[in-house]
Amino acid sequence: MTKTLTFAVLHFSIAFTVACILTGDVVIGGAIALIEPAVNTVGYYFHERVWRSIETRQARRRFVTRCAG
After folding, report:
1. Nearest C-alpha neighbor of 7 from the set 49, 33, 45, 54
2. Pairwise CA distance, residues 33 & 46, whole Å
3. DSSP string across 2-66
4. Cα(20)–Cα(63) distance, rounded to whole angstroms?
């Protein structure tokens, strides 16, 4: 969870800076910077869970293959 939170802070900072530069408006830039990273952070969390599940399944297959061989 710490990794996800630090990623969120980094992403917010980058999104805010880019949005402010592109729009020239701190309020709109702030709104974009709040919404986009929040959604992206949730996506990142689930992406990590899926990959962890894939890696676990692969490790189990390797173990079973070694034990059967």
Report:
1. 45
2. 20
3. HHHHHHHHHHHHHHHHHHHHHHS-HHHHHHHHHHHHHHHHHHHHHHHHHHHHHHHHHHHHHHHHH
4. 51
**53 touches 59 (CB < 8 A):** no
Amino acid identity for residue 50 in this structure: V
pTM, two decimal places: 0.55
Per residue in 57-67, pLDDT (tens digit) is: 999 988 888 88
How many structural domains compose the chain? 1
Residues of the chain with pLDDT under 50: none
The DSSP secondary-structure symbol of 69 reads -
Domain interval for residue 52: 2-68
